Protein: Ca-activated chloride channel homolog
Organism: Neptunomonas japonica JAMM 1380
Amino acid sequence: MLDLAWPWLLILLPLPWFVWRFSPAVTQSQQSALQVPFLEAMEQAVGASVVDKRRSRLWILLLVYLAWCLLLVSAARPQWLGEPVPQQREGRDMMLAIDLSESMLEEDFELGNRLINRLIATKVVAGDFIERREGDRIGLILFGEQAYLQAPLTHDRQTVKQLLDEAQVGLAGKTTAIGDAIGLAVKRFKEMQNEQRVLVLITDGTNTAGAIEPDKAAELAAVEGLKIYTIGIGRDRSQRGLISRFFGGGTSQIDEVALKNIAAKTGGQYFRARDLAQLSEIYTLLNELEPIGQDEDFYRPVVSLYQWPLLAGVFLLCITALWQKRRV
């Protein structure tokens, strides 16, 4: 969009007319220091008629006025405004810690008409959650017997989602090191400056491995200002089928007391997801508890165009000066 930075300067456009109209008339004696009474007769003798002379003078006046207009437009700073571009929003630093222990293979979630395991359910819901967190830096921790950083905090949500999709049960061992996952998150957040630090920890079991106890890790997190939301996923034992209940399934038992303590110590909250709908509701609630930044600042790219009318005006003045010189 074409715009003028100082459009009020255009009120000076009729200034030359006002000067001509209200300035004192110039007498014949002031127009020329040397009076040549027979000059007009000489011009007629060489073929320069009075009409041509007046027409030439009129053209010069028009060119000078046009040059004045162009210079004034240049002074008004014409510029091209591009489309509004949203500025990068400063959101939260949010880390997802996903349990990859063997029990995450338990197929007790339904998607459509088929059963899916807990890890796939987590990928479906958490992947959508990641995509919605525009402006936040998202990181990914995977843990089993050990915890490791799969993706550091980044604005590249697509990469984080892809890394989550590629995660496989057993990748970090068969047991569950909840304390180590929290400890790793504390270590990573400690290196960051953002004060809005959130860890979403998803597990279906009890801490059975690792070098640090969950309670101790939660205390360290609280000291560093890291808020932890814990999510226990998986159906209750009473909700499982007989075959699953008595022959192999449901070996995991969620330590809800520990997960509640972790959340309470860090100012977070504990959630329980027994099916896909509940898990989805939890992530919706997380979006409400930790709202996405609503910074509405935009900027429009600006391209200055003042040089073009400036060059055109100077060019016209040069043409006028040359024309005037030839007339003399």
Observations:
- The longest strand covers residues 147-154.
- DSSP finds twelve helices and 13 strands in the chain.
- The longest helix spans residues 50-75.
- Residues 247-251 have pLDDT under 50 and may be disordered.
